[in-house]
Amino acid sequence: MGIFDRLTGRGPRASGEERKDRPVPRHIAVIMDGNGRWAKKRGLPRKAGHKVGAETFRTIATYCKDIGVKYFTVYAFSTENWKRPQDEVDALMNLFRTYLKEAAETMVARGVAVRVLGDLSVLPADIQRQIDEVHALADTLGEDAATASLCINYGGRDEIKNAVRALAHDVQAGRLRPEDITEDTISAHLYTAHMPDPDLIIRPSGEVRTSNFLLWQSAYSEYYFTDVLWPDFSTKDMDAAIDDFNRRSRRFGGV
Ligand code: IPE
Ligand code: IPE
Ligand code: MG
Prior knowledge:
Blueprint: H1 3-8, E1 27-31, H2 35-41, H3 46-66, E2 71-78, H4 86-110, E3 112-117, H5 125-140, E4 146-154, H6 156-172, H7 183-188, E5 200-203, E6 222-225, H8 235-246
Parallel strand pairs: 1-2, 1-5, 2-4, 3-4, 5-6
Helix pairs in contact: 2-3, 3-4, 4-5
The chain binds 3-methylbut-3-enyl trihydrogen diphosphate (2 copies) and magnesium ion (MG).
């Protein structure tokens, strides 16, 4: 680190020193991956990895709110994850029950609007009721509240297909002309209609793919990949991802 960086506060600080002043992206999304491998390394069942991964979610979501991230979105269960063994799917559904209950009990006090994004119609009925309750509470929080979104039974292609279908219905019913379909109309028909696109998408666990996450919304997102498995992901790892993001030049096609 040069003297200029030292004077301006740019560049890395001495190790162990917390940087509270770093600018943060408005919307951070995370593909929470690596729970199974984390458990396997310890000789534990995969569901043990999901349990610790869910605790990491709590820690990181809280941290993001504390450092001023307005929107924090996580990929918790994909439209493809139903292929997994039934006992693993059941364990994940039970974790959703636990965390939705916690959200309902603490959301208003913490001032974080929790939302669930995805095709919720095929989730167990009791979970759908919990989600309705959580959304009703989220609606009572003002515009300024931070938002934590949990993507459950979410698929980017499924989401775009649903939007196309809804627009086709509007055209068929004479409510919309095909030439009036714009990028904004499409965005407004996605689960993320009321939030900005993610600025930063983090994928832990060493995989370098999107796995059907936020396909439309990620057109100009910055990606950050790390080998850390999600249950081990710490606030320091989040700081490293944000620092990396802050060093990038986003040109959006310009110069
Ligand atoms: C969690 O990690 C992601 C979910 C689908 C819940 P994984 O369960 O995919 O863990 P790995 O990739 O097998 O290690
Ligand atoms: C993506 O992880 C889905 C979630 C994190 C919820 P997967 O583990 O399902 O993705 P693939 O199968 O490695 O692409
Ligand atoms: Mg995985």
